Amino acid sequence: EKGTYPHFMLKEIDEQPLVMRNIIQQYQNENHELVLDEEIRNALLKADRLYIIACGTSYHAGLVGKQFIEKMAGIPVEVHVASEFSYNMPLLSERPLFIYISQSGETADSRAVLVETNKLGHKALTITNVPGSTLSREADYTLALHAGPEIAVASTKAYTAQLAVLAIVAADLAKAKGKDFGFNLLKELAIVGTAMETICGQKDELEKIAKEYLETTRNAFFIGRNVDFYVSLEGALKLKEISYIQAEGFAGGELKHGTIALIEEGTPVVALATQSSVNLSIRGNVKEVVARGANPCIISMQGLNMEGDRFILPKVNEVLAPLVTILPLQLISYYAALHRDCDVDKPRNLAKSVTVE
Ligand code: M6R
To answer: What residues form the catalytic site here (predicted)?
Structure first.
């Protein structure tokens, strides 16, 4: 039920702080550590390489998850779009383990790969919001997202739940391998939840931004470097699927290799700046597009913010930044769709779960 909300999407965006708390509760042990079930941990530790398979938003979560797992636990990870996997199956490592990320657990493209890897005898873990779904039943192991039902076609709370669970996977494996990744995940996820709440309280400002940049535009660009690049892909997907604005997310450094040719007077460019190592270089990219007439909207993290930034995210651990960076992008997309009279919860040509290949 939507309750007092005009749309499920807005309700589900607002539920994200609560989902963070649920996940913390569900995954914590008696020592207040976020941990995996021992059987799942052991299966993951046996693998010499993890292969993440997913589609759409879940694929974008997989890209961030790869960074979490590689940087925190030092285990190599590949991420593949499910629909491409069978045509272009990579050379597998000796002991692969497949991770299927799927909100619904019913996506046909992902299931087709699972059927194939099951035939090959490889272990599979499904990360899903629907335990008992097809992908969950047909895999060896399941990790639940605990996000509650997601009704709007545009995935929001499932994405941040996927990131949180992937961070738990990374932290658990790191600990098992005796690696110190330098922060307390439970504490930092709680801070993320509070930061999400703060952003959800800034809807008026985000509606203003949506009106200013997106009410009449034909196209929009999202740029970021490092993990912000992956968030920019998700921001662009959100905007295009519900507002029908042609949107593209790309890596800041790729601008000069082609896309900058599309920048015209007034083209909206949303630039993400949450990573200290690339803060100056992404701002260099903003200067390049501004020189060609772009209308820049810089979203930065507190501590890295500079004069003229349009929206400042509350400070969270940099590794976990994607969990909060996506919220203003979800809300901007929501308001852009609303002001363009689009059917927010049920965009044209799309279904909530794509059960055909
Ligand atoms: O249920 P799944 O996570 O497997 O779905 C994958 C995609 O179809 C899904 O994320 C889609 O891209 C969303 N509509 C994005 O908002």
So the answer is: 352 (for fru-6p isomerization activity)
> Do the beta carbons of residue 136 and residue 105 sit within 8 Å?
yes
Q: Residues near 4 by Cβ (< 8 Å), separated by ≥ 6?
A: none
Structure confidence by residue, pLDDT tens digits, 6-24: 999 999 999 999 999 999 9
Mean pLDDT, the chain, integer:
96
Closest CA relative to residue 185, chosen from 216, 206, 200, 164:
164
Task: List, for residues 279-292, the tens digit of each pLDDT value.
Answer: 999 999 999 999 99
The alpha helices in 133-224, defined as continuous H runs, are 134-138, 157-176, 185-200, 203-214
Q: Is the dihedral of CA 55, 57, 58, 61 positive or negative?
A: positive
DSSP 92: P
Ligand 1 centroid to Cα of residue 290, in Å, is: 33
d(CA 246, CA 64): 23
- Using CA atoms, how far apart are residues 268 and 264, in angstroms rounded to an integer? 9
CA dihedral 146→147→151→157, nearest 10 degrees, is: -150
- Please give the distance, rounded to the nearest whole angstrom, from the Cα atom of residue 58 to the centre of ligand 1: 6
Q: What is the pLDDT of residues 279-334, one digit of tens each?
A: 999 999 999 999 999 999 999 999 999 999 999 999 999 999 999 999 999 999 99
Residues with CB under 6 A from ligand 1: 55-58, 102-104, 107, 110, 153-155, 237, 241, 353-354
Closest CA to 288 of 271, 310, 306, 313: 271
**Interface predicted TM-score (ipTM) of this complex, two decimals:** 0.98
pLDDT for residue 31: 94
Edge-to-edge strands, sheet with 311-313: 246-251, 219-224, 268-273, 295-301, 311-313
Rounded (5°) CA angle 228-270-207 = 115
Q: What is the crossing angle of helices 322-339 and 157-176, to 10°?
A: 170
First to last CA, the chain: 30
